[in-house]
Amino acid sequence: MKAKQKGGRLLIVAAALLWGLAGVCVKSITWGTMALVLARSLLTLPILFLFKKTKGIHPNRTNLLGAAAMTATGMLYIQAIKLTTAGTAIVLQYIAPILVFLYCVLFQKRKATLAEILITLAVFSGIVLCFSDSLDMTQVLGNVLAILSGFTFAAQILVMNGEGSDSSDCLILSCLMSIVIALPFVIFGEPLSFDRDNLIWVCVLGIFQYGLANALFGVGIKRTDAVESSLILTLEPVFNPIPVALFCGEMMGTRALIGAGIVVLALAAQALVKKNPSTDEDHSVKA
């Protein structure tokens, strides 16, 4: 049992680090958002089918809603990275667990503890610092899109925790939706550059950052405690800015770094707070 749990932890660590490559991939590719969405989905699909244990796809209402939320999250997040710093984008997207908590308090009449209230206030103070770091309108728009991706990610979590939801089906359906939506933009958009650097980073994005990461996490989450896996997942926003800084020279501002640190610490604290079962997040897929 201990060996199985240790293996599960390693799989989740690997998934978190692979997810953290999103920033450097998107920043290193000259293609637009829709082209990246299309390429990522096409490269991810074979990996998803390879790891899928059940036969067939079940496009029921819950799976379709989860897939739609996931598709929106992916598009908003990639566009946010294009406009703001990658580190800020991922930190702002990670408000999703807090939004799920607020939904449960406001609409499911769950009683909030003092610790949860303080954690929520800490997260929003971190967000304010991230926003105040730069008043450049392009970056502000990127921050807004990242926040919106946090809302759609929260919707994804809530829908995929519902009855009749299957995470692998949602992910496959999301890839298919992304292909249908993005394909016309790519066909009628500007020609794409297929130089070596673009192709290398596109392959990293589709095969490793998205496809393999989700597959590994799907296996690892079944072998690991939910609280422990939530703590491990805070590696993603911590690691995300590092390869961007190394390969692209992009650095977060001082206030954004402080804000990011507050958010990450608050998320770690939230994972340690005993939660009502209705607020547990399904992180079996990542947009």
Question: Describe it for me?
Answer:
- It is a single chain.
- The protein is an all-alpha fold and 287 residues long.
- The protein has one domain (2-279).
- It is built from 14 helices and no strands.
- It has helices spanning 2-19, 22-28, 33-51, 61-83, 86-93, 96-107, 114-132, 137-160, 167-188, 196-220, 226-233, 235-239, 241-248, 254-272.
- Helix 7 (114-132) runs antiparallel to helix 14.
- The longest helix is centred in the last third of the chain and has 25 residues, at 196-220.
- The relative contact order is 0.24.
- The model is unreliable at 276-281 (pLDDT under 50).
What structural keywords apply?
single chain, 287 residues, mainly alpha
Layout: helices, strands, pairs:
Elements: H1 2-19, H2 22-28, H3 33-51, H4 61-83, H5 86-93, H6 96-107, H7 114-132, H8 137-160, H9 167-188, H10 196-220, H11 226-233, H12 235-239, H13 241-248, H14 254-272
Helix pairs in contact: 1-10, 1-11, 2-10, 2-13, 3-4, 3-9, 3-10, 4-5, 4-8, 4-9, 5-8, 5-14, 6-8, 7-14, 11-14
- How do the SSEs run, as a string of H and E? HHHHHHHHHHHHHH
Strand proportion: under 5%
Query: How many β-strands, per DSSP?
Result: 0
- Average pLDDT over all residues: 89
Oligomeric status: single chain
The tally of structural domains comes to: 1
